Amino acid sequence: MDDDLEDATRAVAWVSDGSFVGASKVAFERADLVVWMDAPSHVALYRIVSRHVIADLRRDNRFPGWRRLYLFWRWSARFYANSNPHGLNVWGTPNTRAFTREVLAPYESKLVVVRTKREVEEVMRRFLPSP
Fold first, then answer.
1. What b/e readout covers 109-124, taking b as 16+ CB neighbours within 10 angstroms?
2. H/E run at residue 74
3. What is d(CA 102, CA 96) in angstroms, rounded to the nearest whole number?
4. Tell me, what DSSP letter sits at residue 21?
């Protein structure tokens, strides 16, 4: 267990994000609300390429090179195809969309799945206090 995550989830208010849900059980158990930003594969894969190209044009790409782009794009495509048994996951758990769905199933009562920008905006309106 990551000590930082353990400590952070003991706070009165906290927000966590990440793509390795297999290591986040303590966060899911302690959360009042779990939001899964489950963008459609075509949207996510397009955004990976566009962010890479834009960062290259700005000359501030933290992960330069077409090979790195390809490897990350391929890893992400496998996530959506449920054929990425380990990918970048250092915990040894599957890193696929199906595995994410399975891990989140016990928290269905506090789970909100958003797939579009409109749904994200609705969750923010509904759950965040107005300024």
1. eebeebeeeeeeeebe
2. helix 66-81
3. 10
4. G
| Beta strands per DSSP E along the chain | 34-37, 111-114
Q: What is the pLDDT of residues 36-53, one digit of tens each?
A: 999 999 999 999 999 999
Token digits for 33? 């609300």
pTM score, two decimals? 0.79
The vertex-52 CA angle with 50 and 54, nearest 5°, equals: 65
Please state the length of the chain: 131
Find where tokens 């966060």 sit: 27
pLDDT tens digits for 75-103? 889 889 988 655 555 566 677 888 889 98
